[in-house]
Specification:
The protein is an alpha/beta fold and 464 residues long. It contains 17 helices and 21 strands. The chain has helices spanning 3-6, 17-28, 68-78, 104-110, 113-132, 140-148, 150-165, 174-180, 185-196, 225-236, 284-289, 297-304, 368-371, 374-386, 414-426, 435-439, 445-462; strands at 9-13, 32-36, 48-51, 54-57, 63-64, 83-86, 89-93, 96-100, 215-218, 240-242, 245-253, 258-266, 269-274, 277-280, 291-292, 308-318, 328-331, 338-340, 355-362, 395-408, 431-433. A hairpin with a 2-residue loop joins strand 3 (48-51) and strand 4. The structure holds flavin-adenine dinucleotide. Flavin-adenine dinucleotide binds next to helix 2, strand 5, strand 11, helix 16 and helix 17.
Length: 464
């Protein structure tokens, strides 16, 4: 590495898995790196927070092995702190438990024959329609009907999707289904039979479903161990990580269309650092709104129309050694949509005869779920009791964790706004926006890290 390359300084906005991994790749290549994050610990969504001696994830986070190179790198960093865990997830549906992802055999076991016939006919009708006429779905509702048939959509997806997003499926973009919704293997199986008899599926496709048998990785301190280890390798290699530091401005050089500096506020004090390259993993609207001088008015308007769904996570310490027979269970019609028990994946809980539950909800900032009103907590506790998970009296502590940007919202018509904003960013030659928040997409941790690695490679190739 020449001295001139070494002197290049990359500023990375955000210390989630994407930003951290970008910094890992760059520091390993000998580059000067500074990471800036507003949180009080590295990891973004994918960390845990310590409350009264126990660790609580911001939604259960386990690492997949799908990206072999990244997995091996993480394994080498973490050594024996990773705990391999077999995927054991369930869906609670119509009074029964189903394995997640939904399997064909389970479906046949659990659903009355008449109902199954009805769903199959719906799927059959949808598949005939899409095999006869090209059918481009106008919104998520049409995409779901096309994928699963009307009866299954009405029964399984409609209300759940509405409650989860706070938006009717007809107001969500079809892109949401094609990029976020996992395929149901049971439905895939029926579609295969239909295509064997000549009724081919030419409609939309959901993403590949999770594998039934898969090894995940966790730790005794929850999700926090992985970002902690990546952060350590970055600082060991000479990189700097500023926590409790909110990005306030991205300063542009108008003549060269480049980022020349980043300003951030740490503990009430303003700082500015110069940079040669900038990788942003913070929410893309925030990046655009912090540009100085301002982005054009139409770009700022487009940025205002890009929204995220906040999440409120209820971390409960319960006086029961074990509450559920799974890593996590999805619920369709409860105050929460998923309950995880990370102790079943190896989390150390104090006292040892207690357990921790991670109860996940989507919300709006300031609503009853976000604030954790007594009424809402009572609904959570009574739904947990109704599901035989734990009683109100079992709950010893309740901690609420938040993220304002839990999920990108693919509302109807979001695509042109996103395109406009991304194309403005592309016009700034040394700025990249990536990761879950910066790319406005739905990666898992390994994919977010891969996005970070790609951004770092782009910097390295520009550095020669
Ligand atoms: C409930 C839930 C469960 C999940 N479970 C899993 C799982 O089991 N396995 C899995 O692989 N993936 C899981 N994911 C996905 C995983 O969280 C993401 O893939 C990953 O966090 C994306 O990393 P990122 O760095 O792109 O974004 P983030 O983790 O969101 O990081 C962005 C960072 O930017 C910082 N930031 C934002 N604004 C500013 C600002 N103005 N100034 C400074 N810093 C700022 C934030 O503090 C944050 O640290 C889950 C996601 C959710 C919501």
């Amino acid at each position: 590495m020449s001295d001139s390359n070494k002197s290049k300084h990359t500023v990375i906005l955000g210390a989630g898995p994407c930003g951290l991994y970008a910094a890992r790749v760059l520091t390993r290549a000998g580059q000067k790196v500074t990471v800036i994050d507003k949180g009080d610990r590295p990891g973004g969504l994918a960390t845990s927070h310590q409350r009264d001696g126990n660790w609580y994830d911001l939604g259960c986070h386990m690492l997949h092995e799908f990206d072999k190179e990244i997995w091996e790198d993480i394994r080498d960093m973490m050594g024996n702190e990773t705990i391999p865990v077999e995927l054991n997830a369930k869906i609670r549906w119509a009074g029964s438990f189903y394995r997640y992802p939904l399997q064909g055999g389970d479906m046949f076991k659990g659903i009355p024959l008449g109902t199954l016939f009805f769903y199959t006919m719906g799927l059959f009708a949808a598949q005939i329609r899409s095999s006869l006429v090209p059918w481009v779905p106008k919104n998520a509702e049409e995409a779901l009907v096309m994928l699963y048939g009307k009866p299954l959509y009405e029964f399984f997806f409609k209300d759940f999707t509405h409650r989860y997003w706070g938006i009717h499926p007809s107001e969500l973009s079809a892109t949401f289904i094609t990029t976020k919704m996992p395929r149901l293997s049971a439905v895939d199986m029926l579609k295969k039979y239909l295509s064997k008899i000549g009724i081919k599926d030419r409609g939309v496709h959901a993403v590949d479903s999770a594998l039934r048998e898969e090894t995940l990785h966790y730790s005794t301190t929850g999700a926090e161990a992985m970002p902690r280890h990546i952060a350590r390798t970055i600082t060991d290699a000479g990189g700097t990580i500023h926590l409790n530091s909110e990005v306030t401005s991205v300063v542009l050089d108008e003549a060269s269309h480049r980022v020349k500096a980043v300003r951030y506020r740490q503990n009430g004090v303003d700082h500015e650092i110069a940079c040669d390259e900038c990788i942003s993993t913070i929410p893309i609207p925030h990046l655009v709104q912090s540009a100085e001088p301002s982005a054009p008015a139409d770009v700022l308007d487009a940025a205002r129309n890009i929204r995220y769904k906040p999440i409120a996570i209820y971390g409960l310490l319960v006086k029961k050694p074990k509450c559920i027979d799974a890593l996590y269970i999805y619920y369709r019609d409860r105050a929460f949509h998923r309950v995880g028990e990370p102790k079943n994946a190896g989390l150390k809980v104090t006292p040892a005869d207690h357990s921790v539950l991670i109860v996940e909800t989507t919300c709006e900032i300031g609503d009853e779920k976000w604030r954790g009103t007594d009424d809402f907590k009572e609904r959570v506790f009574s739904d947990l009791a109704a599901e035989n998970i734990c009683t109100r009296d079992d709950v010893v502590e309740c901690h609420i964790l938040h993220s304002e940007t839990g999920y990108p919202v693919f509302s109807l018509g979001f695509e042109p706004n996103l395109d406009k904003v991304k194309s403005w960013v592309r016009g700034i030659s040394n700025l990249q926006t990536t990761g879950r928040q910066g790319g406005f997409t739905y990666p898992n941790m390994h994919s977010a890290m891969r996005m970070g690695a790609r951004a770092a490679q782009a910097v390295l190739s520009r550095a020669g």
